[in-house]
C-alpha cells in the first residue's frame, strides 16, 4: 500500500512544483515584464513611434551594429526576455537573424551583467566555481565570455540572415 501512496504523492508533487513555479512567475517575472512594456511603450509614445523606428533603422543599417550592439543594449537595459521586443523596430527581413543573435548573446552577458539573464546565471556560476577551485580569476572569464558572445552573436546573425535570404528567395 505504501508504494501506491508514494506514487500518488510523487504524481501530485509534479503539479505542486508546477504551481509553485507558476506562482513565482506571476509574482516575479510577469509584473516585471508588464512594467518594462509599459515603460518602453511610454517612451515610444513620448518620443514618437516614427522617430524611434527611423533611429532604429539607421542604427541597425549595418550587420555589425544590428547583431552585436543592438542585442547587447537590449539585454543590458531590458534584460531577457523583454529585450526581444526591440526586434520590432527592425525590417522584417532582419528579425529572424536579430532573434538568433540576441539568443546567442543572452548567456555570455551574465558574467558581467547578471541582471540581463538571471535565469542562466546558474550555468555561469557552475563554470566559475570550477575555475575558482582550480585557482583562476573570474574577471577574465567574464570579459572573455562577453567578447566571445558578441563575436558568436555576429556570426550567428549574419549566417541566419544569409539562410533567411536564401530561403525567402527560393519561395519567389
Task: Jot down its keywords.
single chain; 172 residues; mainly alpha; 2 domains; 77% helix; globular; transmembrane helix
Low-confidence region ranges: none
Give the helix tally: 6
The assigned structural class equals mainly alpha
User: Compute the gyration radius: what is it?
Assistant: 21 Å
Round the mean pLDDT to the nearest integer and report it: 89
- Oligomerization category of the chains in this entry: single chain
Helical fraction: over 70%
Give the domain tally.
2
The proportion of residues in beta strands is under 5%
Q: Report on the biggest sheet.
A: none
What does this protein structure show overall?
The protein contains 6 helices and no strands. 77% of the residues lie in helices and 0% in strands. The chain has 172 residues and is mainly alpha-helical. The N and C termini lie far apart (65 Å). The chain has 2 domains: 1-47; 49-169, no CATH class. The longest helix is centred in the first third of the chain and has 46 residues, at 2-47.
Task: Provide a compact summary of the structure.
Keywords: Membrane, Transmembrane, Transmembrane helix. This is PTS system glucitol/sorbitol-specific IIC component. The chain is an all-alpha fold and 172 residues long.
How do the strands and helices of this protein lay out in sequence?
Layout: H1 2-47, H2 49-59, H3 63-78, H4 95-106, H5 121-133, H6 138-171
Helix pairs in contact: 3-4, 3-6, 4-6
